[in-house]
Amino acid sequence: MAGEAGAAPVVRSIYAAFGAGDVEAALEFIDEAIKFSPSGTARRLGRDAPYYGHHGVRQYFADAARTWQELRLHADTLHEHEGEVVVHGRVTGMADGEPFARHVVWVWQVRDGRATGMRVSDVG
Fold it and tell me: Which residues are CB-neighbours of 42 under 8 A, at least 6 positions away?
């Protein structure tokens, strides 16, 4: 249980850094070998494959900045369980002049104070 206590603050820190557009601050909480699968927003970027490692997360930030005029993540609830943090929330934004809003569930794997994996499911 001790490892779980630190998982939610790690994820909250990543969301705060993302909201500030600060990839380097986010990377402080992300493992070098992360498998980062932001499927819904990534598809909008023309990408189906996950991003890997710090280079991949930097690439995702660059791709998102180039494509989205606005992109906001709303982490409404966080639940920890055995090294995972399940986040229910929403993604809102604007791309190509069109508004975008989806309810999503993010699942983060956290180990030793770093996110090692992230996948997201679109729930409509």
Answer: 48, 50, 51, 60, 63
- List all residues 6 or more positions away from 89 whose beta carbon is below 8 Å from its beta carbon: 73, 74, 75, 76, 77, 103, 104, 105, 106
**Sequence letter at residue 94:** M
- Could you give the domains of the chain? 2-122 (3.10.450.50)
Separation of alpha carbons 23 and 20, rounded Å: 9
What end-to-end distance do the CA atoms of the chain give, in Å?
33
For residues 89 and 76, what is the distance between their CA atoms, to the nearest angstrom? 5
Torsion, CA 79, CA 26, CA 37, CA 101, rounded to 10 = 70
Q: Determine which helix (DSSP H) or strand (DSSP E) holds 15, and give its type and residue range.
A: helix 7-19
Q: Grade residue 1 by pLDDT with cuts at 50, 70 and 90.
A: very low
Model confidence at 82, pLDDT cuts 50, 70, 90, reads confident
